[in-house]
C-alpha cells in the first residue's frame, strides 16, 4: 500500500528495494528500540528488581558519554534513513511531505540538545531530545501516521463533547459551592473543608468524581449530614458518566470509523495506482500498432517479472495459476487489474491431509481419535483436573507447609499428565504430525504437555515417586511444593484449550487477537503518549515528592523513575485520589493539575474511547462474517486492517488512475 511517487530509474529502484529489505528495516526497528530503551538506564533511573525504595539497591548510573555514544550511533542511522527517503521521493515531493520535514527538524533539535548535554558533562536536568524520541517510532509506521491523521480529523467532533463535559463540570461546581458553603457550625463543614473549600478544590473534586476515583468518599460527609445531598452527586454521576461519556464513545466510534475508512480507501487507491503503473510500464515494452485503441501486456513478459518480484508466495502462486489457465497471450488493463485482485483476498491456509491408512483397524483408530468427541472428552478431563486441584488447594489453604501431604496432589498430577501425553500421541496417530501441528490449539496443548512431562520427570528424579507423607526436604533449585505449584499453574493454563470449542467465546478471543495482530499502530501511538508524558513527568516533578505512606500506599516520586508505572495507574484512574492528597499537602505545585488533567483527557477520555470504537468495529465485522458464512473446519481466514473494510470500499475509476499517473513526478508515460 506504499506510495509510488518515488524515483523509478534503475539505481533508485535498487536503492528503494535495498531500503525496504528485511535487513534494513530490521536495523531501523532495532535502532528505534535501542534509543527508546535508553530511558531505563539514563539518570534518573530505577532499573532494579524491586520497586520498593526500602529494599532496592542504588540503580546503576552509567558514566557520562556511554549513553550519549549510543545515541549518536542511533542519530547516524536516522540521518541515513531520512537521507535515503528524501532522495527517493525527490526534491519536489520532499517539500510536500510534512513528516520528512518534521523528521529532519527533530534530528536537528536532538543533535543540538546532545551537544549541549556533552558541554555540561551530562549534568543538565532538562533533556529535550528525550521527549522527542517517540517521534522516531511514530514516523516509521505508515499505519501509525494514518491513525494519527484520523485522530486529528476526529478532534473537532470530540472537542464539542469535551466542551459539553466542561460546561457540565463548571455548572455542578458552582452548585456544589453554593450547597456546601461554610456555615457557622464548624463541625458540620467537613464537606466544605475537605472537598469544596474554594473553586480549584471544588473543580478538582468533581473532576475526580467524573472518573469515579473518589466515589463515594466525596459524598460521605454531606450524606452523613443530610441524605438529600446524595441527589446532587447522583445527578452529577448519571449525567456525566452515563450520558456524556457514553455519548463521547458513540461520536468517536461514528467519526473515527468514517475517517479510518477514508484512509483505507486511499490505501486501496495507492495499490490500484501501483498496479496500473506496472501495466503501463510493461505495455510500453512492446510497440503497439498505430490504430490500437488500448494497450496490452505480453503474458510472457509478465511471467518473467513475477519470477523476480518479491511477493507473498500464496499470491504469486495464485497469479501464476491464473496465467496458466488464461489462454490469451496478451492482457488488457482490466484483465491485468483483475489478475492482481488476489492480493485483496483473505489469506487462506489449508490444513495438510490426514494420513491414508490401509489397515481397517488403523482406519477405525483414526476415526475414533480424530473425531471432535475425542477432543470434547479431553476438555472434560481437563475440567476434572482443575476441579481436583481446587479441592486440594481449599483443603490445604490453612495448613503450614510442614503439615501438607503432597501425595494426593502429586498422584492426580501424574495421572492427568499421563492422559494428556496419551491424548497427544493418539491425535498425532489419527491426524499425522503435520496436520496436528497445523492447528494452533494442538501446538498449545502439545507444548504444555511436553513441559509438564519434563517437570514431572524432574520431580520424580529429585524427590522420588509420590507416597503417603510425601514431604521430602528441599533439594535442588526448587522445592517439591514449588515444582508441584508450577505444574498446577501450567495445568490451569492448559484449560484454555476449551476456548475454540465455545463459539461465542472463540469469537471474542479471535477479535482480541486480531486487535493485537492488526491494530498494533494504535498500541504504538499509546506507547508514544505514555513515553512522552512519563519523560515530561520525570523532568517536571523531579524531587518534588518524597517517599511516604498514605493509607498503606507508597507514593514514589518521579525522581525515582516511576513515571511510566505512575501513569499506567493513573490511566486506570486509581491513584488520582492519592495525587490530590499530595496536592492538599502542598507537596506538588497546584499547576501540576494541568499535567494530570491533560493526561486523563488524552488517555482515559480520548484513547480509551478510540480503542472501544475499534474493538466494536472489529467485533461487529467478525460477527457479520460469522452470521453470513460459517468457516470450514480445514480452512483458516486471516484478515488485515485494510481487508476489514474491503466490502464497503469503492474501486477507483480509469480516469482517476490515469490522471494521477500523469501527475507522477518521475514516471513519464508515452500516452
UniProtKB/TrEMBL annotation:
Q: Which UniProt keywords apply?
A: Calcium, Calcium channel, Calcium transport, Endosome, Glycoprotein, Ion channel, Ion transport, Lysosome, Membrane, Repeat, Transmembrane, Transmembrane helix, Transport, Voltage-gated channel
UniProt keyword Transit peptide, yes or no: no
Say which domain of life the source belongs to. Answer: Eukaryota
Q: How would you describe this protein's topology in the membrane?
A: Multi-pass membrane protein
Q: Which Gene3D superfamilies match?
A: 1.10.287.70, Voltage-gated potassium channels. Chain C
Predominant location:
membrane
SUPFAM superfamilies assigned:
Voltage-gated potassium channels
Q: Which family does it belong to?
A: Belongs to the calcium channel alpha-1 subunit (TC 1.A.1.11) family. Two pore calcium channel subfamily.
Q: What is this protein called?
A: Two pore channel protein 2
Q: Which organism is it from?
A: Stercorarius parasiticus
Amino acid at each position: 500500500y506504499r506510495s509510488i511517487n518515488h524515483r523509478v530509474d534503475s539505481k533508485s529502484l535498487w536503492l528503494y528495494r535495498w531500503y525496504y529489505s528485511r535487513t534494513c528495516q530490521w536495523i531501523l526497528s532495532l535502532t528505534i528500540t535501542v534509543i527508546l530503551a535508553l530511558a531505563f538506564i539514563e539518570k534518573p533511573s530505577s532499573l532494579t528488581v524491586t520497586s520498593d525504595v526500602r529494599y532496592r539497591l542504588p540503580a546503576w548510573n552509567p558514566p557520562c558519554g556511554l549513553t550519549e555514544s549510543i545515541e549518536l550511533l542511533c542519530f547516524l542511522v536516522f540521518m541515513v534513513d531520512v537521507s535515503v527517503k528524501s532522495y527517493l521521493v525527490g526534491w519536489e515531493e520532499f517539500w510536500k511531505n510534512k513528516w520528512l520535514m518534521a523528521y529532519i527538524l527533530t534530528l536537528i533539535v536532538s543533535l543540538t540538545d546532545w551537544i549541549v548535554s556533552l558541554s555540561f558533562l551530562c549534568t543538565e536536568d532538562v533533556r529535550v531530545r528525550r521527549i522527542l524520541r517517540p517521534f522516531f517510532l511514530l514516523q516509521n509506521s505508515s499505519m501509525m501516521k494514518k491513525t494519527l491523521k484520523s485522530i486529528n480529523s476526529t478532534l473537532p467532533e470530540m472537542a464539542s463533547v469535551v466542551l459539553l463535559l466542561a460546561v457540565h463540570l463548571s455548572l455542578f461546581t458552582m452548585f456544589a459551592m453554593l450547597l456546601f458553603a461554610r456555615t457557622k457550625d464548624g463541625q458540620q463543614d467537613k464537606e466544605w473543608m475537605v472537598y469544596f473549600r474554594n473553586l480549584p478544590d471544588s473543580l478538582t473534586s468533581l473532576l475526580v468524581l467524573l472518573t469515579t476515583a473518589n466515589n463515594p468518599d466525596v459524598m460521605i460527609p454531606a450524606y452523613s449530614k443530610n441524605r438529600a445531598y446524595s441527589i446532587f452527586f447522583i445527578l452529577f454521576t448519571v449525567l456525566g458518566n452515563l450520558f456524556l461519556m457514553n455519548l463521547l464513545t458513540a461520536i468517536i466510534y461514528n467519526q473515527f470509523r468514517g475517517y479510518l475508512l477514508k484512509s483505507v480507501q486511499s490505501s486501496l487507491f495507492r495499490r490500484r495506482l501501483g498496479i496500473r503503473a506496472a501495466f503501463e510500464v510493461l505495455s510500453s515494452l512492446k510497440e503497439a500498432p498505430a490504430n490500437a485503441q488500448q494497450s496490452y501486456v505480453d503474458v510472457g513478459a509478465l511471467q518473467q517479472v513475477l519470477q523476480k518480484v518479491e511477493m507473498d508466495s500464496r499470491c504469486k502462486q495464485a497469479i501464476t495459476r491464473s496465467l496458466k489457465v488464461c489462454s490469451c497471450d496478451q492482457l488488457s488493463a482490466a484483465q491485468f487489474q483483475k489478475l492482481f485482485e488476489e492480493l485483496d483476498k483473505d489469506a487462506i491456509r489449508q490444513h495438510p491431509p490426514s494420513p491414508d491408512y490401509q489397515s481397517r483397524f488403523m482406519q477405525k483408530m483414526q476415526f475414533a481419535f480424530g473425531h471432535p468427541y475425542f477432543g470434547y472428552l479431553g476438555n472434560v478431563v481437563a475440567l476434572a483436573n482443575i476441579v481436583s486441584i481446587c479441592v486440594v488447594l481449599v483443603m490445604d489453604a490453612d495448613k503450614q507447609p510442614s503439615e501438607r501431604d503432597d501425595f494426593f496432589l502429586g498422584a492426580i498430577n501424574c495421572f492427568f499428565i499421563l492422559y494428556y501425553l496419551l491424548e497427544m500421541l493418539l491425535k498425532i496417530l489419527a491426524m499425522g504430525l503435520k496436520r496436528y501441528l497445523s492447528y494452533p490449539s494442538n501446538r498449545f496443548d502439545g507444548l504444555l504437555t511436553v513441559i509438564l512431562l519434563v517437570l514431572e520427570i524432574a520431580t520424580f528424579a529429585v524427590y522420588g515417586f509420590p507416597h503417603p507423607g510425601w514431604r521430602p526436604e528441599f533439594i535442588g533449585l526448587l522445592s517439591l511444593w514449588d515444582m508441584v505449584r508450577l505444574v498446577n499453574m501450567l495445568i490451569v493454563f492448559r484449560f484454555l484449550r476449551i476456548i475454540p470449542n465455545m463459539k461465542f467465546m472463540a469469537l471474542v478471543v479471535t477479535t482480541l487477537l486480531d486487535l493485537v495482530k492488526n491494530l498494533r499502530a494504535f498500541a504504538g501511538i499509546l506507547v508514544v503518549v505514555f513515553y512522552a508524558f512519563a519523560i515530561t513527568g520525570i523532568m517536571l516533578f523531579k524531587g518534588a515528592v518524597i517517599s511516604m505512606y498514605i493509607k498503606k500506599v507508597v507514593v514514589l516520586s518521579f525522581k525515582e523513575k516511576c513515571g511510566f508505572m505512575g501513569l499506567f495507574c493513573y490511566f486506570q484512574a486509581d491513584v488520582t485520589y492519592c495525587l490530590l492528597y499530595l496536592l492538599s499537602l502542598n507537596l506538588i505545585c497546584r499547576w501540576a493539575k494541568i499535567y494530570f488533567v491533560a493526561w486523563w483527557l488524552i488517555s482515559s477520555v480520548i484513547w480509551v474511547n478510540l480503542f472501544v470504537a475499534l474493538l466494536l468495529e472489529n467485533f461487529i465485522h467478525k460477527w457479520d462474517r460469522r452470521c453470513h458464512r460459517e468457516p470450514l473446519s480445514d480452512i483458516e481466514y486471516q484478515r488485515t486492517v485494510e481487508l476489514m473494510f474491503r466490502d464497503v470500499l469503492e474501486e477507483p475509476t480509469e480516469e482517476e488512475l490515469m490522471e494521477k499517473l500523469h501527475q507522477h513526478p518521475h514516471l513519464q508515460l508515452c500516452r
